[in-house]
What we know:
This protein is of the alpha+beta class. 34% of the residues lie in helices and 18% in strands. It folds into 3 domains: 1-19 and 291-313 and 533-731, no CATH class; 33-285, Beta-galactosidase, Chain A, domain 5 (Distorted Sandwich), CATH 2.70.98; 319-529, Glycosyltransferase (Alpha/alpha barrel). The radius of gyration is 28 Å and the shape is elongated.
Amino acid sequence: xxxxxxxxxxxxxxxxxxxxxxxxxxxxxxxxxxxxxxxxxxxxxxxxxxxxxxxxxxxxxxxxxxxxxxxxxxxxxxxxxxxxxxxxxxxxxxxxxxxxxxxxxxxxxxxxxxxxxxxxxxxxxxxxxxxxxxxxxxxxxxxxxxxxxxxxxxxxxxxxxxxxxxxxxxxxxxxxxxxxxxxxxxxxxxxxxxxxxxxxxxxxxxxxxxxxxxxxxxxxxxxxxxxxxxxxxxxxxxxxxxxxxxxxxxxxxxxxxxxxxxxxxxxxxxxxxxxxxxxxxxxxxxxxxxxxxxxxxxxxxxxxxxxxxxxxxxxxxxxxxxxxxxxxxxxxxxxxxxxxxxxxxxxxxxxxxxxxxxxxxxxxxxxxxxxxxxxxxxxxxxxxxxxxxxxxxxxxxxxxxxxxxxxxxxxxxxxxxxxxxxxxxxxxxxxxxxxxxxxxxxxxxxxxxxxxxxxxxxxxxxxxxxxxxxxxxxxxxxxxxxxxxxxxxxxxxxxxxxxxxxxxxxxxxxxxxxxxxxxxxxxxxxxxxxxxxxxxxxxxxxxxxxxxxxxxxxxxxxxxxxxxxxxxxxxxxxxxxxxxxxxxxxxxxxxxxxxxxxxxxxxxxxxxxxxxxxxxxxxxxxxxxxxxxxxxxxxxxxxxxxxxxxxxxxxxxxxxxxxxxxxxxxxxxxxxxxxxxxxxxxxxxxxxxxxxxxxxxxxxxxxxxxxxxxxxxxxxxxxxxxxxxxxxxxx
Length: 731
């Protein structure tokens, strides 16, 4: 190290302005999500109404067919002492989830009437079904006079935008409206039988707004944008007494009423029993899960909510799409099964003891479609270059492979191959179940592990490295998009080591030796080519001065020494170049500068926390986890994709699954005192110090320092800079 470089660096740091107070955790998200693997919905707290009932959990059914949002909205109203009000006009008293479940609860009141609505998608059914159970309580000193509960449901099952040519018909035998249109059948079932049922043209909205009662209407005829609603009489409800009602919405694309009735038959007809059944189901699920040692009460609450999210975000439709895990749930728009996001989600399932769900996720990968991007690109070169078994990007609902394209061509990513092998190995280590490996040996070894070996460059300047690809941040293929990314190198080494373990367990000794040798070759090439003169790991080889936080997995997965000079130097570079100084917490994903890049990324916070703990910076690691925990506690325990770079508000998609719930669960398990299973990343230790809103003590500013020219601060200088910044922060 050159002493003059250190002196200059320290002088610059001392001249930097003091960092502003870190922004505390705060509420910035206003939705409660639910799902059951067949459908998903959410309650919009700002609009005070339900806004979701999807015909599928995923976005795209197949290459030519999009899934649909069937609900425009649904909400409740009340009549108290002869005065009507839709609850969309009344404030919310409280909102959140019922315990550790996926049951969303909203409490409001009008006069002496307290209304608690609980929305959920029941796991007791194998169909898109959504339920609201309503509990009304008389909080006054006298029996209610001239009072009622109203509902309105605006579903879109018609043609065009979903509103064209709908029809509603009352079915007296089951106490429900059957709504039909080009998209199929939705039933609106009232429990118990309502006092009145109304539909277009006798619009329930107008009736309540006008101060009257609903006008019973048995048929809407065929019309555009038909709506339905119910009324239950509450007159005479005694002081302190409760009355419960429920609405069950069920969907069938082919319009088969008998099949839909059979699915709904799994639900009790009594509203209280319906809610009890759902609570018991969630209690059984959480009771079968495990949690890491040393959790605080806040961490436990957030951890258990993430398990609920992981469960709800897994597709239960039969067929080739069964088991896939989408990247975010409604109202998030990333309801697509990316390989990478699913890898982090499935790893979290394994660690939490959700082994049946993890096996379904792995079984999906091993049975889904792949192989569309073998050869050749517009330049006549290969994409993957050989038949392969894991998608190069993501999947549609039917299990077919999908890649997105822009002006720079498609995304073709090699990191999913290694990730899939690593997750499969973690599952086998945790369960001892080798059936997926033996049943899908060709997919595992020939079309995934061997493909990875074939992607390693044999000669030239980059010999030993896996070929350039689009990688984690999806930079696309042409015009400089594909690069030799550190993240893909990390997933390759991790995957080939996992393949070696799987091959050994399957009695394929020669394969195991090949995979071990290939992993060692890539790791050696990474050590030789990716560590800049400054000691900092490059995000990719094509951008000599680029910082990419995803490179942290090189240390987390022991491709490079977890506590070596490069780890210390790279984390110090992240502190100065990727730290979110405007909010005072966390990291952005890289230094590319776009709006999406500049946000704070929760998955990056959690993966850097792991690396920080392994270099001995446990307080810094714990405070990153504490920040995400506190933010989640302020936002219904849901974890988003990002935080806004200036306000710390929730940004991106929420609830995020693999890059949110999965990353959080993994971080808590890796921090736990007990060691992780052999072959998995080794866990750190240490309890959370201080309060949950404490700011991570790292340096201000965005100076950047990766890949500096000769004469720039050496690794020790970077470490000392970070140490001095932390000292000043704590002063």
